[in-house]
Design a protein that fits this description.
This protein is an alpha+beta fold. It has one domain: Nuclear Transport Factor 2, Chain: A (Roll). The protein is 32% helix and 33% strand. It has a four-stranded antiparallel beta sheet with strand order 1-2-3-4. A hairpin with a 3-residue loop joins strand 1 and strand 2. The radius of gyration is 14 Å and the shape is globular. The N and C termini lie far apart (36 Å).
Length: 125
């Protein structure tokens, strides 16, 4: 069985795959964050686009999301801190030049009618 790319320790089939099929199954901001990271790993561009909150989605372009998702090789997700509506994480990846980079972000989420959405994030330096 395939390990989930979100590094939860669970299999993809019981971790992020169900959320990729039905976003309402993400019961917490962290679950949505993990599913979004996993979607980057698997190139699930529509899932990423659709899980942006409607107030920020209009600023997103699917082609830009796809480029970021596919030009990098996603290696590891490290959850640093979680609150009800924030997730601080480090996403380790190889960039297109095969250099290791770490994307360290504090992400903000909002729950609307029981569904979690990604609002935006701040880079942590």
């Amino acid at each position: 069985m395939e390990a989930c790319p979100c590094c939860s320790g669970n299999t993809y089939a019981i971790c992020c795959e169900p959320i990729h099929g039905d976003v309402t199954l993400a019961l917490t901001a962290e679950q949505l964050m993990r599913a979004r990271y996993c979607a980057f790993c698997k190139g699930l561009i529509d899932f990423l686009y659709n899980t942006f909150h409607s107030t920020t989605r209009r600023w997103q372009q699917k082609k830009d999301i796809e480029r970021w998702a596919t030009e990098n090789k996603w290696m590891q997700l490290e959850i640093v801190n979680v609150t009800r509506d924030t997730v601080e994480f480090r996403a380790h990846f190889l960039n297109k030049d095969l250099h290791v980079e770490i994307h360290h972000e504090k992400s903000y989420f909002k729950q609307v009618q029981g569904i979690w959405y990604y609002m935006d994030g701040n880079i942590v330096v």
